[in-house]
TrEMBL record:
It comes from Candidatus Geothrix skivensis. The keyword Isomerase applies. InterPro entries: PPIase_dom_sf, PPIase_PpiC, PrsA_foldase, Trigger_fact/SurA_dom_sf. PANTHER family: PEPTIDYL-PROLYL CIS-TRANS ISOMERASE HP_0175-RELATED (PTHR47245:SF2), PEPTIDYLPROLYL ISOMERASE (PTHR47245). Residues 87-191 form the PpiC domain. One of its GO terms (molecular function) is peptidyl-prolyl cis-trans isomerase activity. The keyword Lyase does not apply. It comes from the Bacteria. Keywords: Isomerase, Rotamase. It holds the Pfam family Rotamase_3. This is Peptidylprolyl isomerase. Residues 240-261 are annotated as: Disordered. Coiled coil: none annotated.
Amino acid sequence: MQIMMVQGGKDEFVKRMAESKLLSVKAKKLDLDKTPSYQVALNRAKDDLLAREFLTKEGEALQKKLALAEGAAKAYYDQHPERFKQPELVSVRHILVSVKQAEGQPGLSDADAKKRVAKIQAELKKGAKFEALAKKYTDDPGSKENGGLYADADASGWVPEFGAAARTQPIGKVGAPVKTSYGYHLIKVEGRKPARLVPFEEAKAQAEKMATQERQAKVWNELMEDLRKEIPFELVKPAPAAATKASEAPKAPAAPQGDVK
């Protein structure tokens, strides 16, 4: 069965190659290989192919240049501490009661939304679990199944009113309703982690990746600079289309004869 599938794929490939050849032969009969657009595309394809051949030939030498020296990742980490800073992270649960922005849109009126918030607050006072009420009432699909939870999130990514509450509310307490452009939120802060510089051992993989990317850019730029010194090269931009001569400009239509009503 596997052999038949491989053979089928091979047959399909051969079929596509034959069809492409038929089309190209027909195009040549129509002299389409002499059109300016074809010549431009052909030259570009040749340049791309030659460029790949050059890079393949120089591959081993380039790989040696790209290799990171021992300690390069740590050096990158030490030189760019700002890139390894982790902002304050907040874990919150919330219940959103959405307010419709206009007639015909989903959500409750402002008055009805306030009534629902009051109902949820009453259930919380009776001992209902916040997580269970979030699953039951929240209009936020992104956190509904998790009981309203957003864990270890950067509060700066939230709308300002929500972010401010997440950063300042007492941990473990449900705060007063917060109004945002989405509606009313009941927010319970689960915990906060202060901003910190991620230790190198935690950031090592990321530092290696970023150092490698920086090294790749440096090697590439050096290669291009060497080639520019070796090969005189100027990018020629296509000339703008010649302006239509005044004598060749189309004449305005003659004014209509007779009365204009």
